[in-house]
Write a structure and sequence with these properties.
3-stranded antiparallel β-sheet, 2 helices, binds zinc ion, NE0471 N-terminal domain-like, 109 residues, mainly beta
């Protein structure tokens, strides 16, 4: 069981603006689509052995947005992107960790 801070109660696609997530502890933030696409952890975006990022921000097409968001069990969501990339699974605890809001102090890129 995740903690409240790692349990989203609402995930909304705002198209080009990104994805808004409201968490069970009341925290709410918008993840810019470009940022979130760049944080994908799948095998084609991150080297499985070295952990090195293969996807670069400049390789992500402008106007990237999510085309669908799908629950993967109770612990993750899969996000399909407008560039055709659909293998990314974002666990909730990971999403909370990479929260880009000022309060969580994770400036981007
Ligand atoms: Zn990926
Ligand atoms: Zn935050």
């Amino acid at each position: 069981m995740g903690t409240q801070a790692e349990t989203p109660v609402e995930i909304t696609s705002l198209k080009e603006e990104g994805i808004r997530i409201r968490w069970a502890d009341g925290h709410e933030a918008v993840y810019p689509a470009l940022y979130l696409r760049g944080q994908c952890q799948c095998a084609s975006c991150v080297d499985e052995w070295s952990g090195e990022k293969r996807i670069k921000t400049e390789q992500i097409p402008e106007g990237i947005h999510s085309t669908s968001i799908e629950a993967k069990g109770r612990y993750a969501v899969s996000i399909h992107w407008s560039d055709g990339h659909d293998t990314g699974i974002y666990p909730f605890d990971y999403l909370r960790k990479i929260c880009p809001c000022a309060q969580c102090k994770r400036p981007w890129p």
